[in-house]
Write a structure and sequence with these properties.
Blueprint: H1 3-9, H2 11-30, H3 35-55, E1 62-64, E2 69-71, H4 73-91, H5 94-99, H6 106-123, H7 127-145, H8 152-183, H9 188-195, H10 201-217, H11 227-233, H12 236-262, H13 266-287, H14 294-315, H15 318-343, E3 346-347, E4 350-351, H16 361-364, H17 366-380, H18 386-400, H19 404-430, H20 444-457, H21 459-475
Antiparallel strand pairs: 1-2, 3-4
Helix pairs in contact: 2-3, 2-6, 3-4, 3-6, 4-6, 4-12, 4-15, 4-21, 6-7, 6-12, 7-8, 7-12, 8-10, 8-11, 9-12, 10-12, 10-13, 11-12, 11-14, 12-14, 12-15, 13-14, 13-19, 14-15, 14-18, 14-19, 15-17, 15-18, 15-20, 15-21, 17-19, 17-20, 18-19
Length: 478
């Protein structure tokens, strides 16, 4: 493929890279007073990149840069969701950052750069390209986690994320080096040909280390230890971003890195992913029960939800991959809505994060109380919310591959996890009212929360289109 043609298929990534540089230069010249303008331009840039991805005809897929990157329906599906979630994260941040004196122009630029790394991650078609995209994302996320430099919690969150992420990157690189050593290949398609030839114990050992590194990125237990502290310590809009776009990108990368090169040795890695799924669902379900901080609870909730998504990946077939994409899409939409509600938990004294502060919300702010309730029901998987169908799809994929025990265990953990969601709903509707939050009629946060709750409630038309797109994306991997 010629260089002009290669660059044509990279237009979204080029837009983000060049746009981020332009925004950075503009911010340096204009200073922090330009923060709102830079945020608006960053949102426009991300939306523009999303529209370009939608406009590109990527069927069939195209290999770029000698096969290191692949643009196909799968990567396009993930990129559109990543760019949309990143744009919403910036949109939700303005008032919080201004109120906390954090309105600096670097914030939206870092999110754009992180989104660039995520786009590279989901298109990576060899081990080095995967690592390059991953670290491009991580460099921006380290700074975002510690963005509030005057807060001890935020600084601690950034440091913990940096140290543990570096450890996971070492595991991933060691696994990649073993896989290269025992196959002599870096590209996924070439690795798949070697893996199909027969038993290769060195390849399997390398694969275990690779999975360990990838499991950290999606917060799968037992590699989840960073998640609660980073969620709680980072500024709330940053936590919203962490919970949405990077989670989706990491899971999309995980799926491609397992299915494309290692589908012929599915039986070798399926038990490992099943163990990760069981551990994540268990840790998420039981650890969240004791939480009193809403952000820490959402962290353990995220760990549990990654376990459900891993059930679909454990199936290892097109139906399983499609169920993962559906699950992650619904999870991202719901999570952004929940964090919009959390950002609305503001009183004159500042932001509040305690679950008990939601007491009697249905009487002090009925609209917010109803939206919060719908979103929590969806996270719990209560029908007819979209979250119920997300879990149903991954369970069906597992049952189709004779993993009935895994689907049953997932259903049991779903019932356990429903307890802490229902506890919050009880506090919202039946406890004596706490002091009311500030009203923000027609705000960006209110609109985001309302749209998210509406999509979860009116789920069938939304799900039909989503499932069709996910199936087309999953088919491109096989």
């Amino acid at each position: 493929m010629s260089l002009p043609e290669t660059l044509f298929w990279c237009i979204p990534e080029l837009m983000l890279a060049l746009g981020a540089m332009a925004l950075l230069i503009a911010g340096v010249y204009l200073g922090d007073k330009s923060a709102r303008l830079i945020s608006t331009l960053a949102i426009a840039l991300l939306v523009g990149a999303m529209l370009v991805v939608a406009a590109l005809n990527v069927t069939p897929g195209h290999d770029l840069f000698g096969g290191s990157f692949r643009v196909d329906a799968y990567s396009s599906f993930a990129k559109m969701l990543i760019f949309g979630a990143a744009a919403l994260a910036i949109l939700m941040s303005d008032k919080y950052l201004a109120g906390e004196q954090l309105g600096r122009f670097e914030y939206p630029v870092l999110i754009v750069l992180a989104s660039l790394g995520m786009a590279l991650m989901v298109s990576a078609n060899d081990l080095l390209a995967l690592y390059m995209g991953l670290e491009t994302q991580n460099l921006a996320l380290y700074i975002l986690a510690a963005f509030n430099r005057d807060s001890r919690r935020s600084t601690e969150a950034g440091l913990k994320y940096f140290v543990l992420s570096a450890l996971s990157s070492c595991l991933l690189l060691y696994g990649a080096s073993l896989i290269y050593g025992f196959t002599g290949e870096l590209q996924f398609d070439a690795i798949a040909r070697v893996a199909a030839q027969g038993d290769n114990i060195g390849l399997v050992i390398g694969l275990v280390f690779l999975i360990s590194g990838l499991a950290f990125k999606v917060s799968a237990a037992p590699f989840h230890m960073w998640t609660p502290d980073v969620y709680e310590g980072a500024p709330t809009p940053v936590t919203a971003f962490f919970a949405a776009a990077p989670k989706l990108a990491a899971m999309a990368m995980f799926v491609r890195a397992m299915v494309t090169p290692f589908s012929d040795i599915l039986e070798e890695w399926r038990p490992i992913l099943a163990i990760l799924a069981v551990a994540s669902m268990t840790v998420g379900a039981f650890s969240a029960i004791a939480q009193v901080n809403i952000k820490r609870l959402m962290a353990y909730s995220a760990i549990g939800h990654m376990g459900y998504a891993l059930i679909g990946l454990t199936a290892g077939d097109p139906q399983g991959v499609a169920s993962v994409l559906v699950y992650m899409t619904i999870y991202v939409v719901t999570t952004l809505g929940v964090f919009a509600c959390i950002l609305l938990m503001r009183r004159r004294g500042g932001m509040t994060e305690a679950i008990d502060d939601l007491a009697g919300l249905s009487r002090t702010n009925p609209g917010l109380g109803m939206i919060f309730t719908i979103l929590l029901f969806s996270l719990a998987g209560v029908p007819p919310m979209a979250g119920f169908f997300a879990k149903l799809f991954v369970f069906q994929a597992a049952i189709a591959q004779d993993l009935v025990w895994l689907a049953i265990y997932g259903a049991i953990m779903s019932v356990v996890s429903a307890f802490y969601y229902l506890r919050i709903i009880w506090i919202i509707w039946f406890n004596e009212p706490a002091p009311a939050f500030e009203r923000e009629v027609g705000s960006r946060l209110g609109v985001t929360a309302f749209v998210s709750a509406s999509l979860m409630l009116i789920s069938l038309p939304f799900l039909g289109l989503l499932l069709k797109s996910a199936q087309a994306a999953a088919a491109s991997l096989f």
